[in-house]
């Protein structure tokens, strides 16, 4: 059974950058559409970026132009490059398929952006 492990979060000042990683225990990125999700304190989890099997990419309007999703199928790893971060990007970030599967939610990685 595939497991997803997120890493790369941390504390960063507004305007800075972070690169999140999502490591899969098996081949999934070339099989399933995938996404990066985030959940801010007191808010619902939301999809911020998605990538299909064929490589089509989409972003939430709130991160468009600042975040970049990518994947390395050979390494079973997906990334989220976060540039020009804002305090409102503060959240726990998760990777999952799209649509998300409840069994695949991991621990997430926390991102805190200070102004």
What does this structure look like?
With 115 residues, the chain is mainly β. Helix content is 0%, strand content 48%. The protein has no helices and 10 strands. The protein has a 6-stranded mixed beta sheet with strand order 2-10-9-4-5-6, with no helix packed on it. Strand 4 and strand 5 form a beta hairpin.
Low-confidence stretches: none
Widest β-sheet, arrangement of strands: 2-10-9-4-5-6
Number of helices: 0
Range of helix content: under 10%
User: Residue-averaged pLDDT, rounded?
Assistant: 95
Helix-strand layout with pairing:
Elements: E1 4-7, E2 10-13, E3 18-24, E4 34-39, E5 46-51, E6 57-59, E7 67-72, E8 77-82, E9 91-97, E10 109-114
Parallel strand pairs: 2-10
Antiparallel strand pairs: 1-3, 3-8, 4-5, 4-9, 5-6, 7-8, 9-10
């Amino acid at each position: 059974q595939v497991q997803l492990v997120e890493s790369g979060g941390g504390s960063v000042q507004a305007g800075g950058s972070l690169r999140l990683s999502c490591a899969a225990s098996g081949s999934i990125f070339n099989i399933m559409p995938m996404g990066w999700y985030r959940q801010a304190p007191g808010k619902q989890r939301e999809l911020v970026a998605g990538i299909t099997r064929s490589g089509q990419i989409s972003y939430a309007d709130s991160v468009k132009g600042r975040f970049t999703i990518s994947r390395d199928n050979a390494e079973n790893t997906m990334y989220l490059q976060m540039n020009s971060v804002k305090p409102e990007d503060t959240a726990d970030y998760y990777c999952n398929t799209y649509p998300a599967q409840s069994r695949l939610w991991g621990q997430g990685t926390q991102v805190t952006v200070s102004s």
